[in-house]
Design a protein that fits this description.
With 375 residues, this protein is α/β, with parallel strands linked by helices. The protein has nine helices and 20 strands. A hairpin with a 5-residue loop joins β2 and β3 (24-26).
């Protein structure tokens, strides 16, 4: 195996705040007992990377940062906390970022999760309980495809950790012949464009401590921001079309391919003006677009069935899978087995994923128990 130098970040105190005393500024050096409160955030400044953490010790919030030469990016690893005290995992930064393709064929098996919303614990348990990763956060799903259909931001208090886990698994999956797909949802877009109405209070504190607007931490000047901008809003994986919320009749009427939809949407992810220069973009980001549409899960009707059939024909798939709208305590299948809903109440302990193997569809829980829902 080729030797690789991992430059693990040596953190330097940049400043601290003491919780409980009106955020009084002070100076304090972290000890080995300090734990990660949030981060890391990898930010760019000219030819340097600034890696910033917020640490916590005895009620103190301690800001730490290190500056790394951009030329050392691909040999730099950062440490990410988990939901288990004292357990972390390393993330090697990517040498380069590229936009994702829109279609992936010849996929043997898939595992689908949506709407984690910062609940890292249940995300981890689903992946470990179903053989996607091991206890050391290494990929164990072989040539399988992990598909994540959006809304990993907001509400929960371990958003950053979940994002870095997805980021790290991408390269590990590729090395084993598998793949990780991260299809964006409305909450990813909201955080990029500064709509923070569902943000957990922890992240407002982080932004204050770091002296930045929260959306800047996911801007084009950050690694996670650049990475998010490479993601799609719709993808075809095997015989399944994935979109966070669904495909409306208005979207069906647009004369566009999957690639065109993604190309149209990508430049507008961080936009907060809503002054689109193309009516198709206006539809994509509207309530009829794949971020927000809820029409599948209102009163079932022949019209919706026809709409689903139209989408299936238009994009050359057999099935559609969405998140976004909770309709049951479990993953469910609707409309003659053509539509799968993967949004469940993870925060309430009703965490499930969708496993597809050997042409069969199973809902699975954090213990790896499988329940056949379609064959």
């Amino acid at each position: 195996m080729k030797n690789m130098y991992f430059s693990f970040i040596t953190l330097i105190v940049a400043g601290v705040f003491f919780a409980g005393e009106n955020c009084k500024k002070n100076m304090r050096v972290a000890t080995a007992n300090a734990t990660q409160f949030d981060g890391p955030y990898v930010l760019y400044k000219e030819d340097k990377m600034i890696v910033r953490y917020v640490m916590e010790e005895d009620g103190w919030k301690i800001m730490k940062s290190d500056t790394v030469d951009l030329l050392k990016k691909s040999t730099t690893a950062i440490s990410v906390a988990t939901d288990e005290p004292g357990i972390t995992f390393p993330v090697l930064l990517k040498a380069a970022l590229e936009n994702e393709a829109s279609e992936y064929n010849d996929v043997a098996k898939q595992f689908v999760v949506s709407d984690i919303e910062g609940n890292f614990r249940f995300f981890r348990k689903l992946l470990q309980g179903n053989g996607i990763i091991d206890s050391n956060y290494n990929w164990t799903f072989g040539n399988g495809h992990l598909v994540l259909t959006g809304d990993f931001f907001d509400r929960g208090n371990q958003v950053t950790e979940a994002l870095w886990l997805i980021y790290s698994l991408e390269e590990k999956a590729k090395a084993a012949g598998g793949y990780v797909h991260f299809v964006l949802g409305n909450h990813e877009i909201m955080n990029m464009n500064g709509d923070l109405r569902y943000l957990h209070p922890k992240y407002r504190e982080t932004a204050m401590l770091l002296g930045e607007k929260y959306e800047y931490l996911f801007s084009e000047y950050s690694e996670l921001g650049r990475w998010l901008r490479t993601k799609n809003i719709m993808e075809k994986v095997g015989d399944i079309l994935y979109a966070h919320a669904g495909i409306s009749s208005q979207m069906n009427k647009m004369n566009v391919t999957l690639q065109t939809v993604n190309d149209l949407a990508r430049p507008w992810y961080p936009d907060s003006s809503f002054k689109y220069t193309d009516l198709r973009v206006d539809t994509i980001f509207s309530d009829a677009g794949p971020f927000w549409y809820r029409g599948y899960y209102k009163t079932p009707s022949p019209t919706v069935m026809q709409q689903i059939d139209s989408t299936i024909q238009k994009f050359g798939v057999k099935y559609i899978a969405t998140g976004h709208t909770v309709v049951a305590d479990t993953i469910s299948v609707r409309y003659n087995g053509k539509l799968f809903n993967t949004d469940v109440h993870h925060a309430a302990g009703k965490s499930e994923g969708l496993l597809i193997e050997d042409g069969k569809f199973f809902r699975v829980n954090i213990f790896g128990e499988k329940f056949l829902i379609k064959e």
